[in-house]
Known about the structure:
homodimer, Rossmann fold, Dehydroquinate synthase-like, alpha domain, six-stranded parallel sheet, two-stranded antiparallel sheet, 48% helix
Amino acid sequence: MNDFTFQNPTTLVFGKESTDQLPQMIEKYTEGKNILLTYGGGSIKKTGLYDRVIKLLEGYNVFELAGIEPNPRLSTVKKGVQAVKDNNIDFIVAIGGGSVIDGTKLISAASTSDVDPWDIVTRKATVESAVPFGTILTISATGSEMNSGSVITNWETNEKLGWGSPLVFPKFSLLNPELLYTLPKNQTANGIIDSMSHLLEQYFNEASNTEIGDAMISGVMKAIMKAGPVAMEQPENYEARETTMLGATVALNGFMRLGYAGDWATHNLEHAVSAVYDIPHGVGLAIIFPEWMRYVSKKSPARFIKFAEDVFDVDSSLSDEEKINFGIDAISNFWTSLGAPTKLSEVGVKEEDLEVFAEKTLIYGPYGNFYKLQKEDIMAIYHAAL
Amino acid sequence: MNDFTFQNPTTLVFGKESTDQLPQMIEKYTEGKNILLTYGGGSIKKTGLYDRVIKLLEGYNVFELAGIEPNPRLSTVKKGVQAVKDNNIDFIVAIGGGSVIDGTKLISAASTSDVDPWDIVTRKATVESAVPFGTILTISATGSEMNSGSVITNWETNEKLGWGSPLVFPKFSLLNPELLYTLPKNQTANGIIDSMSHLLEQYFNEASNTEIGDAMISGVMKAIMKAGPVAMEQPENYEARETTMLGATVALNGFMRLGYAGDWATHNLEHAVSAVYDIPHGVGLAIIFPEWMRYVSKKSPARFIKFAEDVFDVDSSLSDEEKINFGIDAISNFWTSLGAPTKLSEVGVKEEDLEVFAEKTLIYGPYGNFYKLQKEDIMAIYHAAL
C-alpha cells in the first residue's frame, strides 16, 4: 500500500425509519431555521417523499431549488448559490441521487464567497468554507452520499469534470432502501453498473500489497452481483435493495481504497462522452469499462488474472489469457444482462467525435494510475467501444 | 440488516512517515500547549520512539503518565485523571497498544468532571465531554485506535468491563507498520488472534441479509490469515505488518458491522477470566472462542456452515457437520500454529473458578446477540475450555 490519510466524518443513517430522523440530524449542525431543499425532476412529488419531508421540516423556513439535472449543470448550481445567498440559508437538504448531491456540493462550497463555482471545479479557486448539508438518497449509484467528491457538467464548454474537498462531505445521509422501490428499471441497472465501476477503478490501482482492499472490493462486488439481478426483477425486494444500496455507498466512501487511489481513467473517458451526449454515467461506463479492461489487460496482465480469481473464482486450469478474458467477459455479460448497451454508436456517438473526446480527456495530461493512457491508447479504447 | 447509524470521525494516518505528522495533527485540535503522554511499560524508550516523540513535541509542555498496564487498571486511570487536572492538559497523546489507548479513553472522559471513572465504565455516569486525544499505535490488536470503545479492569473488585462513548473516538491515530518490527512474537500472535476474534464476533451476528458485511469480514480474515504467519516468521516484513495492522484496525472500526452489533459473548467470557488471571486478552480468546463455536454450532448450525464456505471455501461435498467442524478446526489450528494455548488450565485456571467466572459474566443478565447464553451454556463452554 501507499501511505495514506483517511477520514470520513459523514453520519450514515440506514434503514426503514431513516427519513424520519431528518429534523434531529439537522439540529446537530445548525440552530438556524433557513433550509434549502435541492432536488431533481420532481419524482419526489409523485412518490410522496416531498410531502413527507415538508412535514418533517415544520418550523423551518423551507426554500427550494428544483430541477437539478442528471449530469448536474453549472448553470443550475449558480441558481442554487444565488438561492443560498438571497435567503441566508443555514443548511441544505439534498433529496435525490448522485447528480442532485454533486450539484449540492458545489452550491455548498461556492455559497460562502464570491468565487465563480466553475473555478472551484477547475481548481482555480480553493474551498475555504461550505454551507453544511445533508442528503436523503433516492437513487443508489454514485456513493456521493458519503464522500467528498462531485462531478459537474459545463454545457457552455462541454466539459464534465470531477472535483472534491473535505469540506463537502455530507454531514449526514439518510438511506432508506424502500425509497428505491419506485426507481425505473434502467436507473436501477445504471446504479449497479456505476457502483461496480467504482469498485473496478479501485481494484485496478497503483499500489502493491493491497490484500485488505482486494478482499473487501471483491467481496462487495460479489454481493452486488448477487443482489443486483434480484433488485431488477423484484423492485420491492427489501433485502436486494438493501444490499445494492449499502454496496454502492461503501464502494466509494473510502473504505475500499485505504492505501491507494485507484485508476479512474475510465471515468475520465466516460465523462468526455457524457459531456457531449447527455447519457447516464452508468450507460457510458458499461460500454467503455470492458474495452478499457481488454486493452489494458494486454499491457499489464497480472492484475487481471488476480481479478478473475478474486471475484469469479476462475477455474485454475485455464491459461492466463483465458482467465483474463473470463473475468472481463463476466463483467461485460453481467452488465448486458441488466440491459446496458455495449457500443457508443448505440447512444449516438459518431466516429468523428472520438478525437474530440480524447483531446478533452487529456486536459490535465496522460492519466490513469494503474496504467497511464496516452492519446493513442485512448483512441484505441474509444474505437473498440464505438 | 438492522437499521443502523454509523459515524467514525477518527483520522487514520497510515504508513512509514505517519509518526512525523504528530505536531501538525495536534494543531488541528488544540491551540493549547499542555500535552500528556500516556504509555505502558517503557518499551518505547528502548526502541527510540519516546525520544522521537519528545523531539516532535518541541515547543509543547509535555507531562507523562507511564506504566499503563496490559489490561489497564482503574487505579492507573485515576492517576491519569489527576495528571490532566493538575496540569491543565489540552491534549493527550497515547503511545502504545489497546491497553494504553483504552486507559487513555477513560482518562479523557473522566477528566472534565468530578465523576468517579468507574461510574463511567459501569454506566452509572454518562460522558458529557472529553479531553481530545490522539494515538501512536505500537501494538496492533484491539482496534481501539479507531473506535470509541474501551475495556478497563478494576482489581479491587476483579471486574473487567467494556464501555464506550462517541466522545472518545481518537481525533487521529498514526499507524506505522515499522513500529511493529520489535514486537515480541507472542504479542504479534495475540494481536492476530484478537483481530480475528473481532471479525468472528461480528460475523456471528443477530441480523439477516448481511451479505456486504459477510463478504468484507471473510475477506479481511483471509488476508490476515495469509499475512499473519509471515509477520510471525519475518518480523520486519513490511507488507505482512502492513496487512495485519490495517486488518486489525478495520476489524473493529465499524466498517465490518454496518447493520448489526455482532455476538460478543466470547469477549464477556474472556474478560471474566482475565479479570482474575492477568493473561493477555488474545490468549484467553484463543482458548475460549473455538469452544464457543463448537457449543453454539450445535444449537444454531446454519451460520457456521456459511462461515466455513465464506472463509475457507470448504469442500461442497462434505456433510453440514463436517463443514462446520472444518471451519472451527481451521480457526483453532491456525491459532495453535501461532503458539496460542488451547486450555484454560494451561494458564492456571482451576475448575472451582468457573462458577465465579460465570456469575461475573452474568452481571447484566444472559448475553450474546447471535445466541443468548444462559448460565448452563456458559458453564458448558468454560468446562470444555478448561
